[in-house]
Automatic annotation (TrEMBL):
One of its GO terms (molecular function) is DNA binding. The lineage of its organism: Bacteria, Pseudomonadati, Pseudomonadota, Gammaproteobacteria, Oceanospirillales. It comes from Oceanospirillum sediminis. SUPFAM superfamilies: Putative DNA-binding domain. Pfam families: Exc. Keywords: DNA recombination, DNA-binding. This is Excisionase.
């Protein structure tokens, strides 16, 4: 299976938007799951597939992601107990984002 060549976030941004965004904004989007498929952190910079898309999160997804991040700082057993009733929460805890 051939892998698609990855490109830097700034190059991806220039390909997809008429007005470019700051590197801080692009890194935030990468960390928080706004770019799908998610970029890969290579050393200290993100690489992304050229055909990746910006996917704005709806408010409920943002709230679940924030809740998952809070849970990650708590006891693992407490995190699993709180997440067991929400499959999307389990997905976030397991992989960092949902599709």
């Amino acid at each position: 299976m051939a892998h698609q060549k990855l490109i830097p976030l700034a190059e991806w941004d220039a390909m997809h938007f008429s007005r470019t965004h700051s590197l801080n904004t692009l890194r935030k989007w990468a960390r928080e799951g706004y770019i799908q498929p998610p970029p890969i952190l290579v050393g200290s910079r993100y690489e992304v597939a050229p055909n990746a898309q910006y996917v704005p999160m709806n408010n409920s997804r943002i709230q679940r992601l924030r809740a998952a991040r809070r849970l990650q700082g708590e006891n693992l057993l407490e995190s699993l107990t709180a997440a067991q009733n929400d499959p999307e929460m389990l997905e976030i805890l397991g992989h960092g984002c949902t599709t």
